[in-house]
Design brief:
The chain is of the alpha+beta class and 261 residues long. Helix content is 23%, strand content 31%. The chain is elongated, with a radius of gyration of 27 Å.
């Protein structure tokens, strides 16, 4: 009976993690480029009261044995990189990636961050930067006298100066992708960093070799489905409640045993 107490406790702990993940998904439902997370669980080791395939007293073989599980644990919390809906903004500096890839961001410490958030701004030096002021890498600088900006699907940035009809190329957007994007380290601020699990970044031109193209004037919304997260939340809450009832039932059974003693 003590086993039931600890097994149910691990179930409650696992569902607490599950609800925490769901709450973070819901909190970021309006975060540009956000990718929902999913908690994955594994069962723990088993107590083998009778081994599978053991020989019984009459020489026959036991077909199933007696295996009693000892609970569950959180195996991983992974990002799900499905595409979110595209929202048209009409802003020249807003960009969405139509497929695989990340924008590269130069961080103050010299490292490179990666993001799906294409809501770029222009700083005082004309550079395209994130909301936190970190520039895109490689740098794209918009001339002061640019009256219109065009960004092609291949990432070519064209500036039209002083209302001239002929544009001038002022930069090229380069994307990065990873063999295992779920292995990226989340940093907050809509940024990720590479890790040993994600593998090294593969750089390329938008629209080529498996990279998504650039859609100017659009932003990628979060891929969180409120309806699905609410269903998951209710299921997690019910699982937590059932595990707590299992603890209560085990405790009552132990009390009955103590009374008999």
């Amino acid at each position: 009976m003590i086993t039931a107490l600890f097994s149910a406790a691990t179930g409650m702990e696992a569902q607490e993690t599950n609800v925490n993940v769901i709450a973070n998904n819901l909190a970021n439902v309006n975060t540009t480029g956000f990718k929902r997370s999913r908690a994955n669980f594994q069962d723990l080791m088993y107590h083998n009261a009778r081994a599978v395939g053991a020989t019984a007293g009459d020489g026959t073989e036991v077909p199933t044995g007696i295996q009693i599980g000892l609970g569950t644990r959180t195996a991983s919390v992974e990002k799900v990189y499905t595409l979110g809906d595209f929202e048209q903004t009409g802003n020249d500096f807003d960009m969405a990636i139509e497929g695989d890839g990340f924008f590269q961001i130069a961080l103050p410490n010299g490292d490179t961050g990666y993001t799906r958030d294409g809501g770029f701004k222009k700083d005082s030096r004309g550079r395209l930067v994130t909301a936190d002021g970190n520039p895109m890498a490689p740098e794209v600088v918009i001339p002061e006298n640019a009256t219109k900006i065009a960004i092609g699907k291949n990432g070519a940035v064209t500036a039209f100066l002083d209302n001239e009809s002929q544009g001038v190329n002022v930069g090229m957007i380069e994307l990065a992708r990873f063999g295992n994007p779920s292995g990226l380290q989340s940093m907050g601020g809509n940024l990720h960093q590479e890790s040993g699990s994600s593998g090294n970044p593969i750089l390329g031109t938008p629209g080529d070799n498996g990279f998504g193209g650039i859609a100017q004037g659009f932003l990628e919304s979060s891929n969180v489905s409120i309806m699905q997260e609410m269903i998951n939340l209710i299921a997690g809450q019910r699982a937590y409640e059932v595990n707590s009832k299992a603890i209560r039932a085990a405790d009552e059974m132990l009390q009955q045993v103590n009374q008999l003693a």
